[in-house]
Amino acid sequence: MSFIAEYGFVLLVLACAFGFFMAWGVGANDVANAMGTSVGSRALTIKQAIIVAMVFEFCGAYLAGGEVTETIKNGIVDAEVISPDLMVLGMMSALLAAGTWLMIATMKGWPVSTTHSIIGAVIGFAAVGVSTDAVHWDAIGPIVASWVVTPMLSGIVAFGLFMSVQKLIINTDEPFLNAKRFVPLYMFMTGFMVALMTVTKGLKHVGLTLSGGQGILLAFAIGVLVALIGVALLSRIKVDEVADRGFHYASVEKVFAVLMIFTACAMAFAHGANDVANAVGPLAAVVGVIQSGGAAEIAAKSAVPGWVLLLGAVGIVIGLATYGYKVIATIGKEITELTPSRGFAAELATATTVVGASAIGLPVSTTHTLVGAVLGIGIARGIGALNLGVVGSIFMSWLITLPAGAILSIIFFTILRAIFA
To answer: Over 77-127, what HEC string results?
Structure first.
């Protein structure tokens, strides 16, 4: 107890600094991947993508980030097995380790998983620095399984969405008119899906609790509003006969470019809701232990403070704005050629999968999920449409990330324990 009492303020300041550093890494690396399809399909410029991401990443992180944060905070290690001082130093080590690896990866332009980084780091300090009994190994299974299941699920959803676009719009006698007819329905799906998760799961920590029926009704209304806004925007788009001579579906893709704005917002919101936990989950654990005076079991049950989510949201936005350009186009341009109609299917499938995972508190990798969706689009076009070399290098970076996070965490944990011993 004396350790927490003596160094409490210093530890809190360091933990906030490390948490902000980790959030910066999430913004610089993972958010850039999340917006890559919008840039790669040329629906948004890099500057526009950064602005969209800044607004909706912040909203997703602050309004809907609480559920997954609880999993990272309490679900991976056993607070009753780890002493309060080791819990504080360990979670700080995990933040610093994951943030450092993300900075290295971003400098190299590698699209890596922030979820892998932080979970590997938390497991590393707990298993090696404390005891293998300190890790909830039974909870790791579903998380690891999600890294395989979610890309597959996202790929299947993206495949289905893209095939529906082909059937309803592309392979018809009047693709432009059908695009203006059916795209508002896709806009409704986007608005409804994100709103449903937000109003039913994500607003409890800001004091708004709705019943299931109220949540569905409000989400439906928001979906209709989004569709109406879309209809108003689409009414301004006319057939571009000159562009259509060079590319038969040029006018159709202009319609989908409007839709991509909505799916980009949904993607950014979903990413903020899920991946803010990678930065603030360990920080929330440290804050809980310090505020409870070292009572780890009390801290484990404490709610995630709103200001902690706010710190993570701000860090993500700054990371994206300052360094996100390094990797923002990797997924959008190098796996398969994307157009707005293809990019929309990838983004909506990814957002749907990530939002669903966030709702049940499962920390999934946005990078994995988005790559799965883009692969689904590529497969729908034929395996030859995929750049298998790039896909292989991305898979390799995923394999390296978890052990890198664990090793760095063990090193930093040893250093911090020596400093504060």
So the answer is: ECCCCCCHHHHHHHHHHHHHHHHHHHHHHHHHCCCCCHHHHHHHHHHHHHH
Q: Per the structure block, which two tokens stand in for 229?
A: 């806004």
Distance, CA of 298 to CA of 275 (rounded, Å): 25
Instruction: Give the pTM.
Output: 0.78
Q: Which residues of the chain have pLDDT under 50?
A: 299
What pLDDT score was predicted for residue 188? Answer: 92
Lookup result for tokens 């707005």: 340
User: Do 302 and 11 meet the contact criterion of CB atoms below 8 Å apart?
Assistant: no
Instruction: For residue 414, give both structure tokens.
Output: 């040893």
pLDDT at position 17, please?
94
How far is the C-alpha of 266 from the C-alpha of 260, rounded, in Å?
10
In a 13 Å sphere around the CA of 309, the CA atoms on its Cβ side amount to: 25
| pLDDT confidence of residue 334 | 61
Per-residue pLDDT, 16: 93
DSSP string of 34-61?
Answer: HTHHHHHTTSS-HHHHHHHHHHHHHHHH
**Which two three-digit tokens encode residue 202?**
């994500």
Look up residue 253 and give its two tokens.
Answer: 């893709």
Quick check: 65 and 312 in contact, CB under 8 A? yes
Q: Which residues lie below 8 Å from residue 369, measured CB to CB, with a gap of 6+?
A: 150, 151, 154, 350, 353, 354
